């Protein structure tokens, strides 16, 4: 029989980074174990879910993929809300994508508006490590950046060759789980307990209606 | 709740630990007793439909009890390929545009279809039993995703459904007879206690009375929960008397769904609502699509010199609107529909003008081509655009034969047209999504110069979609919301109480005019229909309304929220019947147009009903 309807924790993970660094490829490699060089450029937002075991706990990871061009970020930020972990991705062969990490991180903190921004879990992925011969950003440089941001964990990965993708996302899941447990202590899920908090919801549009 | 240990772990995270985590997540963790999986049901003649190429793959459907839970699993049969299944595909487009890439093996394609789904993740399933042919089941997950459709070949579906009922409670949707919902037991229990509350239903009225206000607080969740779980459960419960049901229903259903008022949300101003009396739209007329315009019909509208008579133009456009044009005619018709060749221009005049346009194209092409690497190193904007174009060209419609394979000359031409457009329109440059607009144009026009100029004409229509401020997109999404409010207030209220009334889930539809939702052939037809600007300039929005209208019961019955709606809408891609949608959109147009005097003015403006024919 079924092991019982024990509620699975839902971990919401957002992947951000410049267009073309491989966000869609990473997500698909992790969830579907596939790489295709025929993925289309992402328009709008989408997500994939995957069940994973973390320390004997079954959790559902909901991984969000968005379009990389900045102008499209102003829409769809509603999906940043409630994120448990933010994955920043850059392309190790493209130094611009590395330089833009700061603004991706800032943008996320502004839009998602987590309660404790200094300790919000980020993870950095340097993708396309299979293209070592074209490397433009050294591991050292990336690690230094991570240290300066409160010790963000760093992984070099390849969505194409499936290198390190699994272990990186395991770490992401752990960070997200830690975050989720913090959060759900504050906002338990209905119907365990009903909580009224008028400050909790501040959607970007249409909020503040006092009718 | 979640063990605090996990949190502490992160506090002292270190690399050594992390390496340990690399183990396969689905494998049983150490220390747990390993239980063998038990197959409780095995049906060996269940085929799946591959939507990419409309083929059927035979396979095995199993229900398996595992240590982690109960799973519904479908795997392709070892001996497939396709195993003699009849392909029920009348579309000929695949002959022209192969959708199966050569480098991907058949086996890989088939394996992509296999799935394993936890029964606890099942939200509902579509269950269709046609009088003729195989019954079909399509599983819908809690996240809004749909699995591949399964066709039960020699067996009925009852063994499978009976088996599922050992683990979950199922109920056929009262609104959609083809939908079977997984009932949340918690909801059932709650429903009973709600009835027990009897006269205390004012608590519920408070939840239900004002979904908008409650959505602004944490209560939004409860409102949705009540609407989706409690009310249907209440209505279906046998323990509740008929009278009680009616009373409960009257008290629980909010005015907005069944009452005589609708609220219209206007623009960006927060809290600015206008109360309008709900329109009773006239019944939706039956609309039939017509056959595509042939070369012969098209030519019959031409003067001897090749220009078109202004007086007959409206008729011709209506013909294109009603049926599109035949694929062979596209190369010519698109030049006119996009305004590259003027309707009143003779062929000789155009030929002359084209010579200038050709020179102009190569002049601009030469501009970006002459920028060398050294210059580029001091021209960041150019270099950013160039790399964006390169990246996007490499992932635009690569599964179509026309753009298939490495070193394909058509890719180079797509790249060159887009780069030259950056020179033509410096202010806009290249923005993602533009390659989606460009690729069908290049495919149809073939000639690089013609394709470029037609592309500029198309960009004239849609450039605001790509503006830095995204105001136009936001505006169109708001307009869509207003239209849904008029045409389908029930859906609109549902979206509001599920944090989805910003209509963001339609972003992709609007940004690239459904390019990602339809095949190349259907996209071409849709676009030429829209380029006629008949019967109103904003017909695109009515197409959105028509699709959402069709999905209403499915979305509501499944109780989808913000994320599930987005997932469901994204997955509609390649599952939308274009002719059906065009007919429905036109029918909705007639409904609205017949109610013009009663519609708020801004709604008429959204459709640009009042605008005269631009030609
Ligand atoms: N060599 C290599 N190419 C990759 C890798 N990951 C992605 N790509 C390619 O990089 C391009 C952009 O990938 P995509 O996942 O669409 O990037 P996104 O815009 O960040 O979602 C595609 O052409 C991919 O094939 C990788 O690990 N190695
Ligand atoms: Mg992407």
TrEMBL record, chain A:
Listed Low complexity bias regions: 184-204
Annotated Gene3D superfamilies: P-loop containing nucleotide triphosphate hydrolases
Region (Disordered): 180-211
GO BP, one annotated term: phagosome-lysosome fusion
PROSITE patterns: RAB, RAS, RHO
CDD domains with a match to the protein in the record: Rab7
Keyword terms: GTP-binding, Lipoprotein, Nucleotide-binding, Prenylation
Alphabetized SMART domains for the sequence: RAB (SM00175), RAN (SM00176), RAS (SM00173), RHO (SM00174)
Compartment annotation: Late endosome membrane
GO cellular component, one term: lysosome
Entry-linked InterPro entries: P-loop_NTPase (IPR027417), Small_GTP-bd (IPR005225), Small_GTPase (IPR001806)
Keyword hit for Oxidoreductase: no
Molecular-function annotations in GO: GTP binding; GTPase activity
Tree of life domain: Eukaryota
Any matching Pfam family: Ras
Family, similarity comment: Belongs to the small GTPase superfamily. Rab family.
Protein name: Uncharacterized protein
Automatic annotation (TrEMBL), chain B:
Record GO cellular component, one term: cytoplasm
Localization terms from the record: Cytoplasm
Domain Rab-GAP TBC: 324-534
Record keyword tRNA-binding present: no
Alphabetical UniProt keywords: Acetylation, Cytoplasm, GTPase activation, Phosphoprotein
GO molecular function terms noted in the UniProt entry: GTPase activator activity
Superkingdom of this protein's organism: Eukaryota
SUPFAM superfamilies xrefs: Ypt/Rab-GAP domain of gyp1p
Principal subcellular localisation of the protein: cytoplasm
Function summary: Acts as a GTPase activating protein for RAB7A. Does not act on RAB4, RAB5 or RAB6.
PANTHER family recorded: LD27216P (PTHR22957:SF645), TBC1 DOMAIN FAMILY MEMBER GTPASE-ACTIVATING PROTEIN (PTHR22957)
Subunit structure: Interacts with non-phosphorylated form of RAB8A; phosphorylation of RAB8A at 'Thr-72' disrupts this interaction. Interacts with ARMC12.
Protein name in UniProt: TBC1 domain family member 15
Organism annotation: Mesorhabditis belari
């Amino acid at each position: 029989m079924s092991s019982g309807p024990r509620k699975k924790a839902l971990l919401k993970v957002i992947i951000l980074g410049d267009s073309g660094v491989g966000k869609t490829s990473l997500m698909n490699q992790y969830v579907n174990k596939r790489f295709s060089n025929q993925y289309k450029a992402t328009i709008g937002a989408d997500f994939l879910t995957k069940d994973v075991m973390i320390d004997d706990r079954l959790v559902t990871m909901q991984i969000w993929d968005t379009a990389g061009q900045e102008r499209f970020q102003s829409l769809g930020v509603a999906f940043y809300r409630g994120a448990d972990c933010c994955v920043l991705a850059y392309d190790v062969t493209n130094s611009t994508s590395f330089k833009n990490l700061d603004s991706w991180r800032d943008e996320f903190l502004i839009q998602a508006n987590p309660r404790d921004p200094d300790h919000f879990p980020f993870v950095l992925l340097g993708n396309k490590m299979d293209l070592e011969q074209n490397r433009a950003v050294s591991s050292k440089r990336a690690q230094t950046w991570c240290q300066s941001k409160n010790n963000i964990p760093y992984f070099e990965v390849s969505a194409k060759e499936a290198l390190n993708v699994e272990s990186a996302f395991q770490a992401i899941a752990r960070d997200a789980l830690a975050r989720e447990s913090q959060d759900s202590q504050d906002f338990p899920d209905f119907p365990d307990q009903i909580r009224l908090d008028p400050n909790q919801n501040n959607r970007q549009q249409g909020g503040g209606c006092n009718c | 709740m979640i063990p605090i240990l996990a949190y502490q772990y992160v506090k002292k995270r270190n690399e050594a630990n992390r390496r340990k985590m690399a183990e396969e997540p689905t494998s049983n963790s150490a220390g747990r007793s390993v239980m063998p999986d038990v197959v409780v049901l095995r049906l060996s003649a269940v085929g799946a439909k591959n939507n990419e190429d409309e083929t059927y793959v035979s396979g095995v459907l199993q229900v398996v009890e595992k240590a982690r839970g109960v799973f519904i699993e479908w795997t392709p049969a070892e001996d497939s390929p396709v195993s003699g299944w009849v392909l029920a595909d009348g579309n000929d487009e695949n002959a022209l545009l192969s959708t199966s890439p050569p480098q991907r093996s058949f086996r890989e394609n088939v394996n992509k279809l296999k799935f394993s789904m936890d029964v606890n993740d099942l939200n509902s399933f579509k269950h269709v039993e046609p009088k003729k042919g195989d019954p079909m089941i399509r599983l819908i997950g809690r996240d809004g995703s749909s699995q591949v459709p399964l066709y039960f070949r020699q067996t009925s579906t009852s063994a499978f459904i009976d088996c599922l009922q050992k683990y979950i409670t199922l109920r056929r949707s009262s609104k959609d007879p083809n939908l079977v919902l997984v009932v949340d037991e918690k909801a059932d229990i709650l429903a009973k206690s709600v009835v027990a509350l009897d006269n205390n239903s004012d608590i519920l009225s408070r939840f239900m009375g004002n979904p908008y206000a409650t959505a602004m607080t944490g209560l939004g969740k409860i409102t949705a929960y009540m609407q989706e779980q409690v009310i249907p459960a209440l209505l279906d419960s046998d323990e509740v008397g008929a009278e009680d049901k009616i009373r409960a229903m009257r008290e629980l259903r909010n005015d907005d769904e069944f009452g005589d008022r609708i609220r219209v949300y206007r623009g960006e101003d927060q809290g600015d609502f206008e109360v309008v009396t709900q329109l009773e739209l006239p019944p939706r007329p039956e609309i039939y699509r017509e056959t595509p315009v042939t070369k012969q019909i098209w030519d019959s509208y031409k003067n001897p010199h090749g220009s078109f008579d202004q007086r007959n133009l409206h008729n011709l456009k209506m013909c294109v609107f009603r049926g599109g044009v035949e694929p062979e005619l596209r190369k010519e018709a698109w030049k006119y529909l996009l305004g590259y060749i003027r309707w009143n221009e003779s062929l000789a005049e155009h030929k002359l003008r084209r010579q200038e346009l050709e020179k102009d194209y190569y002049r601009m092409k030469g501009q970006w081509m002459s920028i060398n690497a050294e210059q580029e190193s001091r021209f960041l904007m150019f270099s950013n655009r160039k790399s964006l174009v390169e990246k996007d060209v490499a992932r635009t419609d690569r599964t179509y034969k026309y753009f298939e394979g490495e070193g394909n000359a058509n890719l180079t031409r797509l790249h060159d047209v887009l780069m030259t457009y950056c020179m033509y329109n410096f202010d806009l440059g290249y923005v993602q999504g533009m390659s989606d607009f460009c690729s069908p144009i290049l495919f149809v026009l073939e000639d690089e110069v013609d394709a470029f100029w037609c592309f500029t004409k198309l960009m004239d229509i849609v450039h605001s979609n790509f503006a830095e401020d995204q105001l136009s997109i936001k505006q169109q999404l708001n307009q869509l919301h207003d239209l849904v409010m008029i045409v389908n207030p029930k859906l609109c209220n549902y979206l509001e109480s599920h944090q989805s009334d910003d209509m963001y889930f339609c972003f992709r539809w609007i940004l690239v005019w459904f390019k990602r939702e339809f095949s190349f052939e259907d996209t071409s037809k849709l676009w030429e229909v829209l380029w006629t600007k008949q019967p109103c300039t904003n017909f695109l929005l009515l197409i959105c309304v028509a699709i959402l209208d069709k999905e209403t019961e499915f979305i509501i019955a499944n109780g989808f929220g913000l994320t599930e709606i987005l997932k469901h809408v994204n997955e509609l891609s390649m599952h939308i019947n274009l002719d059906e949608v065009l007919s429905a959109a036109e029918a909705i147009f007639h409904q609205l147009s017949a109610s013009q005097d009663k519609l708020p003015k801004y709604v008429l403006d959204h459709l640009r009903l009042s605008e005269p024919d631009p030609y």
